[in-house]
Amino acid sequence: MKFSFAKPSLPASGVLAVTVAADRGLGPLGRELDQKTGGALARAMAAGRFTGKKDETLTLLAPAGTELDRILLVGIGKGADLTDLILQAAGGAIAVALDKATEEAALLVELPEGATQSPAAAAAEIAFGAQLRSYKFDKYRTNDRKADKKEPKPSLRKLTLLVEEEGAAKAAFKKLDTLADAIRFTRDLVSEPANVIYPESLAEKTKELEQFGVEVEILDQKKLKKIGMGALLGVAQGSAFEPRVVVMRWNGNPDADDKRPVAFIGKGVTFDSGGISIKGAAGMEDMKWDMGGSATVIGTMYALAARKAKVNAIGIVGLVENMPSGTAQRPGDIVTSLSGQTIEVINTDAEGRLVLADCLWYAQDVYKPKLMIDLATLTGAVIVALGHEHAGLFANDDDLAMNLTAAGLKVGQPVWRMPLGDAYDKEIESPAADMKNTGSGGGAGSIVGAQFLKRFVNDVPWAHIDIAGVAWAKKDGATVPKGASAFGVRLLDRFVADFHEG
Known about the structure:
The protein has helices at 28-36, 40-47, 84-98, 119-133, 166-191, 199-205, 221-227, 230-236, 292-306, 352-367, 381-386, 398-411, 422-425, 445-454, 489-499; strands at 2-6, 13-21, 57-61, 67-77, 104-108, 158-162, 215-219, 244-251, 262-272, 312-322, 334-336, 342-344, 371-376, 391-395, 415-417, 435-436, 462-466, 472-473, 483-484. It is α/β, with parallel strands linked by helices. It has two domains: 2-134, Leucine Aminopeptidase, subunit E, domain 1, CATH 3.40.220; 179-499, Aminopeptidase (3-Layer(aba) Sandwich). Strands 7-8-10-9-13-17-14-15 form an eight-stranded mixed β-sheet, with helices on both faces. Helix 5 runs antiparallel to helix 9 (292-306), helix 9 packs across helix 15 (489-499) and helix 12 (398-411) crosses helix 15 (489-499). Mn(2+) 1 binds at residues 272, 349, 351.
């Protein structure tokens, strides 16, 4: 969708959206519009029980007294309660309400008394929300484009925001639109099927970040064998697709006193059949997005570099496909990780932690980061614990955990900290190797998975974010349509901006 910004005025025709505060509060131009329509706005709000609360919308068709085709009223609530997330949700509501109704529309942005945002900043946030919510992944729907089909309904393609200080609004939105581009890129990666996105092709996609100044290094199977990534290679050995590890480097603050980078590590299992410990058929198609953690890391590096963030950052993603075959890893196999620690593989469907183990060790051994954050669709158990509302957060550092929690709340990507401890660590003791890759089956599956990863981080401040329940939206949200959510890109971008830039 395209966005433009102009001085506030009432358009003579077309489609107009209007922000409405709590208790049906209209701004000066909103009241003028109500007068022009003979009070139609006030009557419609009263009849429809529309009060201007957040998340409310109301449509008036062909209102009398104007040449407008329709007016959309969008509730934003009380000024004192108005947040960026509420404004983004309003933008998402506009995108949904006007899509298939018109190709172009205007939005009159008038804020309630008590709002702390400037109209320009508010307009930018609304546009950002509309951009996020309007995302579609329909590139393979060829029937929608066949010439013999009926004329398709219009799709909202342009929104003009009518606001004071339109230049400031345009400048504020430019930064947010860059973040939206990174989110769109991430969603596309996760949405692609596994016959399109596999280790080699996903590694090639990361080269698109070079246009922003990211240095991209791709480690192929020969290199991985040479350096000793035995845990990752064990997962990959059943697939016809060779594994890859990609290192993305953004040196946005070369003059920093502390030049150590922040490191982001992502699980990139481009398809997870479970291997020899094969999953059930029902729902296995969803396992194309078991690379969601890697996509989030790639998207985060995109976002940081595209906005020229003043931070030194490393993104490392381990890319494999987990398949059963005559060459596949077997339950009972013992592999030697890059760290030198040996792992007894009890269940080949607990593969993500093997991939991350080698990538975490590589990150700290080669790049000496100030902190490490890994993201992975690691366990179904985290969904049992937290559903699809929060990601699970595990950390060996309280400040890091608190900062990630704060960043998540600001952008609407909440995390919930869960425990680690020696009692859980005992679950992965093995009589045959240094550890095993699953617990005894006594519960706490997501904690045991995190405890496994903790054995590969030493004393580096580290956080593990289990995004299994939030990487794919099962239903439409305010700014996230059903499908790939890109959960974590906004969280990590805000985390860097608030705590590690400058």
